[in-house]
């Protein structure tokens, strides 16, 4: 493949590099990935197969050269729901309600195994408690050391780790559903045939509230409290089998832990990978956390330790 003859596209927070390949009457996307290529190429296609089997539009494989670190997939274009909603001239709630319907389709997926293009079987993993602890610890490992030094650093790390474990113990819903794990408006595409979903390689089976928390408390797309509540209530209206208090409990815990994780990821992207553009999103991630933990009894211990060690001055600083 001669990459000089195709157009390079803007990248994301992963190790993937994207190119658009033009044909006479269509185009395709080349995903090149040398590091962590199993997840970003092989597993990505396996998950997309499962999505398409359940009438969730996802890119289909056109060709692959795994040895040379790339796959070729359908081109969904450049129009994301994020771009539509960012114009603020559209009916945002109408689109968000369509996304709720998409989320419901995802959560009905029962297939757990797919055949990869290398003829191996891939089984979607469970979102284990250990994995969720490790993800939340990204905040502890990559963000915390920027502001807390010396012996105090290890003390606070242990306290935060204990608080995170206690919060996970408070989750109510044990039944696992399909979780995209990065379900937000930048990963939902506007196609000719409806909404399409990308960036699905990290999918797991986990808590039913996780993807809704990703959508409503999206660090990339600020929304008003009123909008958040409308979408939350719309989801509950459609899924009226859920206990509202139990679901809200899980939603709030997962939102807070996810945004702590995101602060850690953005800090790691800056320090390890020299991708500094995500740092500007950290202050809003803090706002999302504050919105959920303020005046909320289950977050008392977390609020105390965060307020003491990460005051407003730090939270408003993108660096």
Q: Report the principal-axis shape.
A: globular
CATH superfamily (homologous) name: Aminoglycoside phosphotransferase (APH), C-terminal lobe
What is the name of the CATH architecture? Alpha-Beta Complex
User: Which strand order spans the largest sheet, edge to edge or round the barrel?
Assistant: 1-2-3-5-4
**Helicity range of the residues?**
40-55%
Could you say which structural class the secondary elements and strand pairing correspond to? Answer: alpha+beta
Oligomer: single chain
Number of strands: 11
Outline the biggest β-sheet: 5 strands, antiparallel
Description:
With 319 residues, this protein is of the alpha+beta class. It has one domain (77-315): Aminoglycoside 3'-phosphotransferase, Chain: A, domain 2 (Alpha-Beta Complex), CATH 3.90.1200. It is 47% helix and 14% strand. It has 11 helices and 11 strands. It has a 5-stranded antiparallel sheet with strand order 1-2-3-5-4, with helices on one face. A hairpin with an 8-residue loop joins strand 1 (7-8) and strand 2. Helix 3 crosses helix 7, helix 6 crosses helix 8 (244-273) and helix 8 (244-273) runs antiparallel to helix 9. The chain starts with 6 loop residues before the first strand and ends with a helix. The mean pLDDT is 93.
